[in-house]
């Protein structure tokens, strides 16, 4: 078989690595042409290499649209006219988003594989373990996290840890392994990360508490409530994390990157080149009324009618996450050339208005709402954060402290119908208190799932919360949702068990027919 596969092959022999960037945290030299003899001779060189695993460039094809389509459109949190197959569960193996996510995940795994092998070789040749071991642990965390994502997205999937050995063997017919084995492998990777990562590091870098946090999420997915509780409790008791007061700022302000609530984030730079260095969610979410000469905004994804119904009365997260009629931001004063009515309407600050004509500054999305999360505004000249066309400098958060608190509450609940446990209530009510809501005196699984949905809306997570409840519950949730527009209510009637996981990309199966066969055990 010719070595022409696009993503599995990227896993086997990636072109390591990426070009240098300007920010200290992301800065790294190109590693092409280096050897263990002439490089990785100090902590700075090694940390520069592993910082690539956090950067926006390799994650771009997942976080830009695939994360939205899979996590929020498919779950019923978002409406779109673009990724309609995720709205109506007609996703095929030819889907662009599936291929993009698969390619991104396996490319980053490929980087991790090569780094682990390279750093181990450097150690064997006398390299300093004091900085090589933490770097190896970083790679294990990234590899474990990505296999966790892969197992939840596709179920059974290939696992590769030694790209060199696979290439030398000449056998590229790689099978899918059972989902339970992919999850076990992911857990073992996170355990290795926990053992090797430091107690603390500079903001944004991985620590053993980040590994504990991701492990708690994986344990919860596996319904291992005792271990989920234990790991979440270790993170809580560490005292290293808090809930921030500026909820919106977590997603829209560069100054809040790597804040005290963030455990693990994709690290972005405010840059237009190379493409993907910056956060490019901005235009897909921004209201068209906020498009200016500095900021693109074409509202590809908007809140669903169903998520609008989910918020309790008085929940501050609604206006922190969603723009609706009457929503304002007085500091945003977008202006446009040759648009006197628009400019007059916006002169005293942005107003989200569904009555004003769109050409004059009104907003008339299919659900009469737009997404605030990850929209940085109309540009610095117009009172917003700095924006370069489609690019902002906001990190994309993949794990935050609010998740740990809700994992902890759910792990205490376990398989019980309800609980009034004081620690579980304290955890969930801390999240609710920030949102301006009254505390609960007892909780059920439905209470926790409601809290998770509104807390993490538009962060790419809700599909996995639906999925992990099992097919019967998932079907009931999906079929109750209005997935249409204000003028065209739409409901799903074709949700079957095979929709619980996404299909393997068609191109991958063509090049590796084993991927189209039944999965096999990874552990003998």
TrEMBL record:
Subcellular location, record wording: Cell outer membrane
Domain SusD-like N-terminal span(s) in chain numbering: 81-220
One of the record's GO cellular component terms: cell outer membrane
Keyword Ligase: no
Source domain of life: Bacteria
Lipid metabolism keyword on record: no
RagB/SusD domain boundaries: 305-518
CDD domains listed in its UniProt record: SusD (cd08977)
Short name of one Pfam family: SusD-like_3
Keywords from the named record: Cell outer membrane, Membrane, Signal
Similarity annotation: Belongs to the SusD family.
Protein name according to UniProt: RagB/SusD family nutrient uptake outer membrane protein
């Amino acid at each position: 078989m010719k070595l022409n596969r696009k993503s599995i092959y990227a896993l086997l022999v990636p072109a390591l690595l990426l070009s240098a960037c300007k920010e200290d945290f992301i800065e790294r030299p190109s590693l092409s042409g280096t050897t263990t003899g002439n490089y990785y001779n100090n902590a700075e060189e090694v940390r520069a290499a592993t910082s690539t695993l956090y950067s926006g460039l390799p994650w771009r094809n997942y976080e830009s649209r695939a994360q939205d389509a899979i996590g929020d459109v498919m779950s019923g949190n978002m409406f779109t006219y673009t990724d309609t197959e995720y709205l109506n569960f007609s996703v095929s193996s030819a889907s662009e988003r599936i291929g993009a996510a698969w390619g991104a995940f396996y490319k980053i795994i490929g980087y991790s594989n090569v780094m682990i092998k390279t750093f181990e070789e450097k150690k064997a040749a006398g390299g300093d373990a004091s900085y090589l071991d933490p770097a190896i642990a970083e790679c294990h965390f990234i590899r474990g996290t990505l296999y966790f994502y892969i197992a939840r997205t596709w179920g059974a999937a290939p696992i590769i840890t030694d790209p060199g050995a696979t290439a030398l063997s000449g056998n590229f017919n790689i099978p899918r392994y059972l989902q339970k084995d992919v999850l076990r492998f992911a857990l073992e990777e996170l355990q290795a990360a926990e053992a090797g990562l430091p107690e603390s590091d500079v903001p944004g870098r991985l620590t053993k508490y980040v590994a504990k946090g991701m492990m708690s999420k994986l344990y919860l997915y596996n319904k291992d409530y005792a271990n989920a509780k234990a790991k979440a409790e270790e993170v809580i008791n560490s005292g290293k994390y808090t809930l921030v007061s500026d909820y919106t700022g977590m997603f829209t302000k560069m100054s809040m990157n790597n804040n005290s609530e963030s455990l693990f984030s994709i690290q972005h730079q405010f840059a237009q080149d190379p493409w993907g260095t910056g956060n490019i969610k901005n235009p897909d979410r921004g209201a068209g009324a906020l498009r200016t000469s500095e900021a693109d905004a074409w509202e590809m994804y908007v809140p669903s009618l169903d998520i609008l119904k989910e918020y309790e009365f008085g929940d501050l997260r609604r206006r922190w996450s969603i723009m609706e009629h009457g929503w304002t931001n007085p500091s945003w004063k977008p202006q446009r050339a040759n648009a006197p009515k628009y400019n007059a309407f916006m002169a005293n600050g942005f107003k989200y208005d569904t009555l004003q004509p769109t050409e004059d500054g009104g907003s008339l999305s299919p659900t009469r709402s737009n997404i605030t999360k990850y929209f940085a505004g109309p540009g610095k000249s117009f009172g917003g954060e700095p924006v370069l066309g489609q690019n902002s400098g906001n990190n994309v958060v993949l794990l935050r402290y609010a998740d740990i608190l809700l994992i902890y509450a759910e792990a205490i609940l376990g398989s019980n119908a309800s609980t009034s446990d004081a620690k579980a209530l304290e955890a969930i009510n801390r999240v609710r208190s920030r949102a301006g809501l009254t505390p609960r005196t007892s909780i059920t699984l439905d209470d926790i799932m409601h809290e998770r949905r509104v807390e993490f809306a538009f962060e790419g997570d809700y599909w996995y919360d639906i999925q992990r409840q099992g097919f019967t519950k998932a079907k009931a949730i999906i079929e109750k949702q209005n997935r249409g527009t204000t003028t065209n209510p739409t409901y799903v009637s074709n949700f079957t068990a095979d929709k619980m996981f996404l299909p393997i990309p068609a191109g991958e199966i063509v090049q590796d027919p084993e991927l189209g066969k039944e999965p096999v055990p990874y552990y003998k």
